[in-house]
Amino acid sequence: MVSPVLAASGVDWSEVHAVRLLGIALGALILLWAIRRMFGGK
User: Fold this and answer.
1) What's the whole-model pTM score?
2) Residue 37: what are its φ and ψ, rounded to 5°?
3) Per 3-state DSSP, what percentage of the chain is helix, strand, and coil (rounded to 5)?
4) Which residues contact 42 (CB under 8 A, 6 or more apart)?
5) Buried b / exposed e across 4-41, counting CB within 10 Å, b at 16+?
6) Looking at the predicted structure, is the pLDDT value of residue 32 above 70?
């Protein structure tokens, strides 16, 4: 899903993956919180 321009510009892939994982983790936390709220949890 990455454009050739980005790949050619010398992107630090470990950084990209770290940011992506952080985003996924944050999204999962928010999703869990929303589900718990929906079912009357704290």
Assistant:
1) 0.56
2) -60, -40
3) 75, 0, 25
4) 36
5) eeeeeeeeeeeeeeeeeeeeeeeeeeeeeeeeeeeeee
6) yes
